[in-house]
Specification:
alpha+beta, seven-stranded mixed beta sheet, two-stranded antiparallel sheet, binds flavin-adenine dinucleotide
Length: 825
């Protein structure tokens, strides 16, 4: 009995020590206490007691005297580790070193600091930025007509191009000292988001020069001479930039580009200078056909050792005027019918002087790192902003349409079947905007969060895909018929572009998010790798044992928090969010455990186990987006009306985390480890569910009802107060329909009482007016509402030959058909 009680007490004590990540001294004291109890309370034989004391002494010696532990235990492990550590290519190493880590590291820790999260500042526009968004951006949106752009012109109008250049849209990120707008990352995303709600073509045109491209690269790495020459010209739109990395042979595997340059001497502007002879073939390059300067990535070689002793110098970036002799550029691709400029370019044995290398000779071979670092910022802004636009326009327009469009005498938004996709649109939009806002806080505080930027790129474009699918379903035929009245079709058709560019999504999910996150954000993995690289046993010893304690702690925490569901964990926040933060603490511990066991059991081949690493990446991403959602709710003053959005987004995130964790465990290569993981992660089984129908209905209600929650959700979308505009009209119609509801109810009641004729609607209304069942104002409002409703549900139709003159072809076709028919008679 005594032994049983002591066994349980020892287990509880061990669990408590592990849970609190106790030091080696604390563990040694605990063990000594246990042996003391055995000595006096169990009457164990002296030999057993002696053995227990010796074991305790050895444990304490190794736990406390680190050089001893390093020499005896860590050293052989270090040897094995160095042998099995997977080869990291230089490209991968540079990608790993580039950028920074931020709150993502907390999520990897198993014990995120929620107080820190809630204390980050809120993303805000300065007065100058607000004036720009409300002024020139609104004005530009008013000039844009996506149908005219894509159907009639396949380009922006000359006026829009001029406005974009003149107002500085191409220099949003260029510092004021070089003539740019010098705006924050948050302003940048607000601008791109608003333009995207009006025209994808214009948004891409503005987005590309401000994203990964010549301006960004010059700001960070250019020589003073390059900056002084190009940045003011770029800011004023006197130069149109493009950046060419992608080669037909190397798409996603951009580090494998076969484009090359050879260091040599050549003639430039009449004199012999040191330079590079370049050969390249690029495709898919946005703005390429109209660009005046071309940024090119290529691999540089120095066979004659003109720069030093290294022959293979590595990826290098150069800036070449497109008018330069030998540059082939100007032809155009048609990306899914979108009208933004995109095309191939190439050059063979084109000589450029060395000072056309971005950053000059000093920066040769550093191109990959430069690209990855710039991508860490740009990738968080461009595609996420476009996705946000789909969310905001999708929420606003689909909600209004679902309220205005009735079937079976009911607004379609009130059918349960339609509520479901409406809830997904609203809930996803709330979470996406929260993610965008939090990420901009990171960027504006100087971070270049590489893992977070990959999370944003992948998850926001995927949720955009979901939102647009749902919005299209709800709009039915209205979303399908193309023409000036279709405000969704272009965005829907162009989804795959956002999915493919700036890191194709499958690759981003399967390789990048967890692959980079596990090494960058994990508290010990990078330290272990570095220690191996530097051959430092002491550093490795500290990292290894820290790592062990970390894993044991997360196992203990995961089990306990799995049993309690996180109840009792001390977290900051408000009554609405405290429970969520507790659950997230539980998931963070479980995620840290799963990551460690995956890395330990699967080792270097985890890189190729993309299905496991994709799911682990999903968990990290969901944790990040859920954190952002809680933060948003707090930043916006804990709006009661937004509770359905918060609740839907959090429940959806938790359910998806559970699915991803279950997927990792169910497919774990070691069944033994999987059994333990299931016990530690899901001690009570899979207990979480999808957001309830009740909360889903409440989210749908927000979308179909004018009000503050709907306005907050869609803030930043371009919605003109103009009945003649296809999107603006939706708002007028929605309000009109809601105001007409009680009038129509009065009419229905009168009809039921037999007071109105059972003939046409017009006759019934007239009868209602004549009998004073409704007033003249009410009658007028019903007529007005009808007109708006008809305008909203209207789609476009065209001449059968779409206005082209095919009469000659038709005649020839008819004649030949007649001949064939006659011959066969
Ligand atoms: C409209 C458009 C505009 C673009 N603009 C530019 C630009 O301005 N400048 C520029 O340099 N480039 C640009 N690109 C290129 C773009 O950024 C992508 O890098 C490129 O399209 C990806 O290469 P790929 O299309 O050949 O796909 P592939 O690399 O052939 O990939 C095909 C599929 O395989 C998946 N895949 C590949 N490797 C892996 C892996 N290891 N694990 C899992 N999945 C994998 C990918 O995710 C993708 O789904 C543009 C592309 C498009 C379509």
């Amino acid at each position: 009995m005594t032994i049983a009680i002591m066994g349980v007490a020892a287990l509880v004590a061990a669990w408590a020590l592990a849970y609190h990540r106790a030091s080696g001294v604390a563990w040694s004291v605990g063990l000594a206490a246990l042996v003391l109890a055995i000595t006096f309370a169990t009457g164990a034989p002296p030999a057993v007691v002696l053995a227990a004391w010796i074991a305790t002494g050895l444990f304490a010696a190794f736990a406390i005297i680190k050089p001893l532990r390093a020499a005896v235990i860590t050293k052989p492990i270090f040897g094995i580790y160095k042998k099995i550590l997977p080869q990291i290519s230089q490209t991968e190493q540079e990608a790993l070193d580039a950028g920074s880590i931020w709150f993502d590291a907390d999520l990897f820790s198993g014990r995120p600091d929620w107080t820190k999260l809630l204390a980050y500042p809120e993303a805000r526009l300065s007065a100058e930025e607000r004036a720009f968004v409300d002024g020139p951006v609104e004005e530009l949106c008013g000039m844009l007509d996506e149908w005219d752009i894509t159907h009639n012109r396949m380009d922006l109008s000359p006026e829009a191009w001029k406005f974009i250049r003149d107002k500085g849209f191409l220099g949003i990120i260029i510092p004021k000292s070089y003539g740019g707008l010098g705006f924050s990352a948050f302003a940048h995303t607000e601008i791109v988001t608003k333009i995207s709600t009006r025209s994808g073509t214009a948004a891409v045109t503005v987005m590309v020069p401000n994203s990964l491209g010549p301006a960004e690269l010059l700001i960070h790495y250019g020589t003073e001479e390059q900056k002084n020459h190009y940045l003011p010209r770029l800011a004023k739109g006197l130069e149109i930039p493009c950046f060419a990395l992608t080669n037909p042979e190397a798409g996603s595997d951009a580090g494998a580009i076969p484009d090359f340059g050879i260091v040599c001497k050549g003639m430039h502007e009449g004199r012999e200078v040191l330079g590079i002879r370049m050969t390249w073939e690029k495709r898919y390059i946005t703005l390429g056909p109209v660009a005046t300067i071309l940024g090119v990535a290529f691999k540089l070689f120095d066979p004659d050792k003109l720069l030093g002793n290294v022959e293979g110098i590595g990826v290098t970036l150069a800036l070449i005027p497109t008018s330069h002799k030998g540059v082939n550029i100007g032809r155009r691709h048609i990306p899914l019918g979108a009208a933004f400029m995109n095309g191939p370019n190439s050059g063979k044995d084109v000589f450029i002087p060395m000072d056309w290398v971005i950053g000059g000779q000093e920066q040769v071979g550093k191109g990959w790192r430069m690209l990855v670092e710039c991508l860490a910022a740009g990738r968080s802004i461009s595609l996420p902003s476009m996705s946000m636009a789909a969310g905001k326009l999708g929420s606003r327009a689909t909600g209004a349409y679902a309220r205005v469009r009735s079937q079976f005498r009911t607004p379609i938004g009130k059918f349960e079947g339609v509520e479901e996709p409406l809830a997904r649109i609203g809930g996803n939009t709330y979470l996406m905007d929260a993610t965008r806002r939090l990420t901009m806080v990171a960027l504006d505080s100087g971070e270049k969060p590489s893992v977070i930027s990959a999370i944003c790129k992948y998850h926001m474009t995927e949720r955009m895909r979901q939102i647009l699918n749902d919005a299209m379903d709800i709009h039915g035929g209205k979303g399908i018929m193309m023409g000036p009245n279709n405000y969704l079709g272009h965005a829907y058709i162009n989804i795959p572009i956002a999915i493919t560019v700036e890191g194709a999504n499958i690759l981003t999910r399967s390789m990048i998010i967890f692959g980079q996150g596990a090494i960058r954000c994990h508290p010990y993995v990078l330290k272990e790798i570095k220690a191996a690289g530097e051959n430092s046993l002491t550093a490795f010893d500290l990292a290894l044992w820290g790592h062990m304690a970390f894993t044991v702690a997360n196992a203990a925490r995961s089990l306990w928090l799995g049993i309690t569901g996180g109840e009792g964990v001390s977290v900051p926040g408000s009554p609405e969010t405290r429970r969520y933060l507790q659950q997230m603490t539980r998931f963070s511990s479980a995620f840290a455990l799963l990551s460690d066991v995956s890395m330990f059991v699967i080792g270097g081949s985890l890189k190729r186990k993309e299905k496991i690493s994709g799911r682990l990446g999903d968990i990290l991403s969901l944790l990040y987006m859920a954190s952002a959602t809680v933060k948003r709710f707090h930043d916006e003053g804990r709006q009661k009306d937004d509770l359905p959005l918060l609740t839907w987004a959090m429940h959806d995130s938790f359910f998806k985390m559970q699915v991803a964790m279950d997927g990792v465990i169910a497919n774990f290569p070691s069944r033994f480890a999987a059994a333990w993981l299931r016990l530690l992660v899901f001690p009570k089984g899979l207990t979480l569910d999808t957001p309830s129908d009740k909360w889903g209905s409440r989210v749908a209600e927000i979308l179909i009802t004018p009000g503050a929650a709907r306005d907050r959700l869609t803030a930043g979308a371009y919605v003109p107060r103009d009945e003649n505009d296809v999107v603006g009209r939706l708002e007028f119609a929605m309000h009109a329909v809601i105001k007409a509801d009680p009038i129509e109810a009065t009419m229905r009641k009168a009809a039921k009482e037999g007071k109105l004729p059972q003939r046409t609607l017009a006759e019934r209304r007239l009868a209602a007016l004549n009998q004073a069942i409704i007033t003249q104002d009410e009658f007028d409002h019903l007529v007005y509402t009808d007109r708006l409703r008809r305008d909203v549900i209207k789609v476009d139709d065209f001449e059968h030959d779409l206005g082209r003159d095919h009469r000659e072809e038709t005649w020839q076709h008819t004649e030949s058909t007649k001949k064939v028919a006659a011959a066969s008679m």
